[in-house]
Structure formats: structure tokens, C-alpha cells
Amino acid sequence: MKDKSASTGHSRPLPRIIAVANQKGGVGKTTTSVNVSACLAELGYRTLVVDLDPQGNASSGVGVETRGIETSMYDVLLNDAAMEDCIEPASLKNLFVAPSNLDLAGAEIELVPLMAREHRLKKAVDSVLDDFDFVVIDCPPSLGLLTVNALVAAKEVLVPIQCEYYALEGLGQLLRNVDLVKRNLNPALEVSTIVCTMFDSKTKLSNEVVAEVREHFGDKVCRTVIPRNVRLSEAPSHHQPINVYDPSSKGAVAYRLVAKEVAGGTPPLRSR
């Protein structure tokens, strides 16, 4: 894949802000958000997971209990709480999370009348950028205002696509939304990475889907595919990313390779 590291005139490159988006449910979006982030942290990158899904699965997946948290992403987006007050350390060195909970479920409606409603997440994320190498935003499975906020805040979009029938179904609408946000709200936004998930090497279908995705998106598609793996399915119930739950599993090996592809030549904060 191309080196997508940021380049500026400053000695410290800008942090990478990546929205993980696909309005189709069950494609491995939260699994990818959690495990790519955890593997980036393992590589030495200070990484923040922003959980924008009211179910809070990304928060619990990195070991943060969402019940009873004092400040959540709901408070940041709707009540102007400081982003730094929302951030919690995760169960892995260099990994942090801005958690969500069910309070966020009504945010799509509550955001509608607010001023600069599409820019509220960007303002919050920008306030903490100096502390991180990567900010990974786990979007809800919809194309509503929460996802639009993520696309306005991000510079890159990572799209997980499952290796199953109708894999590309609905993707056109996501790409159209990304283009709309790019033209009207965030000119820097690009789809930078496609990750093929739930790959079963034994089936002809999985191989055909990967070939089709590569034909459509070229070198934006990660060389590494994410296999169907029981340990990947088990890890969330233990509130651990896969590289903690079972470091030698096929899922952990694959997500480490994807994280390296995503990171490219980005230097970690400690070496800047």
C-alpha cells in the first residue's frame, strides 16, 4: 500500500485521524476499530479510540466499563464537555478510549437544532491531537449525523468489507456520502484503506469477493485479509483486543499486519 503518512513543514507530522465506517451492520467495523487500534498501540503509537456507537462495544472491547462513566461522548457532543475529561486509559499501554454508552442513542435527533452540528466532534478531537499519533473513530452502522461528524473530523476513511455475498451492497451510498462531505465540509477527506474481513480461504466466494474488491479499489485494499477466527469472536466477551486475548491467534497476526500497513511510514510520537 502507499505510504499515507502525513507530511507538513513542521518537525512533528500531524496525527492521523481515521473514521472506520460502513453503514452495513455485521461487517467487522468495531472489531477492526478495536484491533487495529490495539495493534497500533502495541507498535508504540499513542492511539485514541473514539467510540461513536451508542452500544459502546468499542469501549468495552478495550476494557473500559461503560456503565457509570462520568463523562461520555454524549457529554462531549451535546453538553460541550471537554474531550480530555472523557478519555480513559484502556487495558493496553499506549491505548486510550473516549467511551460511549446508550445516552448517545438520542444524539442523532438532539444534534439537529445545534449550531455547527456537523463540526462538534472535529472541535473535540482537535483539542487533544497533540497527545496522539492516531485517532480511530468507530462509527455507528448508519449514515446519520454521528457518522457525518466522524467524516468531518477525520482525514481518512477505513472501510471494512466482509468477504460474503453482497459485500459491495450499500458501499456506493457510503462513497457518495464521503464525496458529499469532502465537497461541502471537509476537503481533506479520502477513503484511504479497505480491509477485507471474515475471509474463509476454503470457500470460492471469499476469494472472489477479495478479487472483486481489489479490482474496484486497487492499492487502497490491504494486502492482509482478516480471517474468520473463533478467537476474534471470543475476545470482546473478555473485554480485550485480540493481541491481548490470544496474541498468537490467526486474528491477532492478521490485525498486526493490517496495523503495519495502516501505519506505513508514520513515525511514533516518542521518536518525534
Quick structural overview:
With 272 residues, this protein is of the alpha/beta class. It is built from 12 helices and 7 strands.
Task: Report how far apart the termini are.
Answer: 23 Å
Order of helices and strands: EHEHHHEEHHEHEHEHHHH
The residue-averaged pLDDT reads 91
DSSP E strands, number: 7
Q: Which structural class do the helices and strands define?
A: alpha/beta
| Low-pLDDT runs | 1-11
Describe it.
The protein is α/β, with parallel strands linked by helices and 272 residues long. 37% of the residues lie in helices and 13% in strands. The protein has twelve helices and seven strands. The protein has helices spanning 29-42, 57-61, 73-79, 83-86, 107-110, 120-126, 145-153, 171-184, 204-217, 230-234, 242-245, 250-263, and strands at residues 16-20, 47-51, 88-89, 95-98, 134-138, 156-162, 190-197. It has a seven-stranded mixed beta sheet, with helices on both faces. The longest helix has 14 residues, at 29-42. The chain is globular.
